[in-house]
From TrEMBL:
Subcellular location per the Swiss-Prot or TrEMBL entry: Endoplasmic reticulum membrane
Main subcellular location: endoplasmic reticulum
Polar residues bias spans: 1-47
Membrane topology: Multi-pass membrane protein
Sample GO molecular function, one term: diacylglycerol O-acyltransferase activity
Protein name as annotated: Acyltransferase
């Protein structure tokens, strides 16, 4: 399908040709910007411009500096592109984005400790007197409480805490908007790809780590996740304080519905879900989108505008092991997905579950102004779904040469 597969033309040969041409023509050096530019018709990407403008010696020195700052050579793809003994412009851009002074690793250690404390806290409370008499009623209440579908219990100070910025600096995570959003409208954002645990979605839209509130003033965002996450005591409170809600039709209608939702309200859906997480692999972008139309139907029913969001690098922060066909691990993944709506990819990062330090660049696209249709027809849903997929492909084509550092294949929309 020509629409589902976008060809990838960047390779070491392009870099070699560009550098040789630049050296033969004696072009002068001009500084590269750390912010990638959009690529319009007849234009070249920021990475291609850098390839033509920067002499190899400048790129090599910049990369050496980045190597000192990060302590390691960046990604196997850098080696693959290193056909002339020096890194490509893509690696130069990556080096420019590295945070120079930060201690984000400590933030991830704190996060891991906090999650372990939640698990141990529940075990202790469930078995220790007198906490036993408090924990069990709380558990029963959490199983029936519907706060997660009523907007959560947003605690703005927690969402704006500097701690989340430390987490974002680890990769680092960047948020970029193609256009400003009108705060008098309501929006449904679609996030792609899912990755293993959608870290870009959490840091960009579940917190203010990357400046969402400043980039989109007047937009009240609610990141949505599976309802099962709100059945875990204590853990659910953290999600609710961040304003994270469950991904149900009731929750979406409450926040962005024409009658209940206020102007400026927005929700973020990770469209691919558990099925897409199993396809997460560094360098590959395989989506589960072609047969996902429920979010489009909700946009039409509520009259909310659809906003495509693509997160370059989301799949690069974890390696995923694919279990053997019909193995116990594969059957367990299928069972969890079928019965609980989530699954457990066999993932590992830099050190166990510590994610790899790969940049995540999230692009928020131009909204699609869906009409209000309380009972949308299949034809309407399909038409707007096709418009959405085309908009997502446009984002990919505009930014892939600038920010898809590790890609080894084109974008696959998938089933």
């Amino acid at each position: 399908d020509s629409q589902s597969e976008v060809p990838d033309r960047q390779g070491s040969q392009d870099i070699q040709t560009a550098v040789v041409r630049q050296q033969s023509e004696g072009r002068s050096c001009s500084p590269a910007t750390s912010q990638p530019s959009r690529v319009g018709e007849g234009q070249t990407s920021a990475a291609q411009d850098v390839d033509r403008q920067l002499p190899t010696s400048v790129v090599v020195e910049a990369f050496k500096e980045a190597k000192v700052l990060t302590g390691s050579l960046r990604t196997s793809s850098a080696v693959k592109r290193n056909s002339l003994g020096g890194p490509s412009a893509v690696d130069y851009a990556l080096a420019k984005w590295r945070p120079k002074k930060t201690q984000p690793r400590n933030a991830f250690i704190v996060l891991n400790i906090m999650l372990v404390a939640i698990v141990l806290g529940n075990l202790v409370a469930a078995t220790t007197w007198p906490l036993y008499y408090l924990w069990w009623p709380y558990l029963c209440w959490s199983l029936v409480d519907n706060t997660s579908s009523k907007g959560g219990r947003l605690w703005p100070a927690l969402r704006r805490a500097d701690y989340w910025k430390q987490l974002a600096d680890y990769f680092p995570v960047h948020l970029h908007a193609q256009v400003k959003l009108d705060p008098s409208k309501r929006y449904i954002f679609g996030y792609h790809p899912h990755g293993v645990i959608s870290l870009g979605a959490l840091l960009n839209f579940g917190t203010n780590a990357t400046g969402f509130e400043e980039l989109f003033p007047g937009i009240d965002m609610r990141l949505l996740t599976l309802n099962v996450n709100f059945k875990v005591p204590l853990h659910r409170e953290l999600l609710l304080w961040l304003g994270i809600c469950d991904a149900s039709a009731e929750s979406i209608t409450h926040h962005v519905g024409r009658c209940q939702g206020k102007a400026g309200n927005a929700v973020m859906l990770v469209v691919g879900g558990a099925a897409e997480s199993l396809h997460s692999q560094p360098g590959f972008y395989r989506l589960k989108l072609r047969d996902r139309q429920g979010f489009v139907k909700m946009a039409l029913k509520t009259g909310a505008h659809l906003v495509p969001v693509f997160s370059f690098g989301e799949n690069d922060v974890f390696n995923v092991l694919k279990p053997a066909e019909n193995s116990a691990a594969e059957r367990l993944q299928a069972c969890l997905k079928k019965n609980f709506g989530f699954t457990l990819p066999l993932a590992y990062g830099e050190m166990g579950l510590m994610p790899k330090r790969e940049p995540i660049f999230t692009v928020v696209g131009t909204p699609l102004e869906c009409p209000h249709s309380p009972e949308p027809t299949d034809e309407e849903i399909t038409w707007w779904h096709n418009q959405y997929m085309e908009a997502l492909l446009d984002i990919w084509n505009e930014y892939k040469n600038s920010v898809a550092f590790n890609r080894v294949a084109g974008l696959d929309i998938g089933g």
